[in-house]
Amino acid sequence: MQLGKTLAAAVGALIVLIAMPSAFADQKTDRMADLFESSIAQESSGNIDRALDETLDILKLEPKHYLANYRAAWLYYYKGNYAKSVVYYENAAEIQPDSLEAKLGLLLPLMAEKKWTRAQSLAEKLYAQAPYNYYAGSRLAYIYYSHGKYDLAAGQYKKVLKAFPSETDMTLGLGWTYLKLGKKELARNAFAEVLLIKKNNLSAKTGMESL
Prior knowledge:
Layout: H1 2-44, H2 48-61, H3 66-79, H4 82-95, H5 100-112, H6 116-129, H7 134-146, H8 150-163, H9 168-180, H10 184-197, H11 202-210
């Protein structure tokens, strides 16, 4: 009789031990879900510091979580901490090596820090990989322009506009590039095209005044 009780107790303890990892996993998953929901809500309300803190709490629970790293990178970028943003975008890209969005995101802090050489190298690779991706093409055009490579910038803006003719930001970029190249009539045409659609566009007006 005593043996039966002992055996039953042992089996009961074993069941508890087996169930514990599952219970902990469920608690962890619930906690992460709550943090994600709150972080997104905080960002929407403009509470970026709180949104970031909660995203970093997720990473304490799961350091290799792709989306948490990606969100941390974006939130650091939004706050102007570009060095930290680079780190977390790189983490996300390492976790998901085929992720185009993580590498496109990485361009943002690199451009903000004016690291044009590295940004250009990465953007050229991304554009070769995804030539019809608007962000790959447009960011490469902007990098060429900002790096003072105006001939390359003009060609790249034209490529993007060929695929996305309605993107007035690209027409505007092309106009400023033409202005840098001394092609005033082409610049005038580009600025006029923008002003036809957005008559109060300050950049296009400034461009016109610069002619």
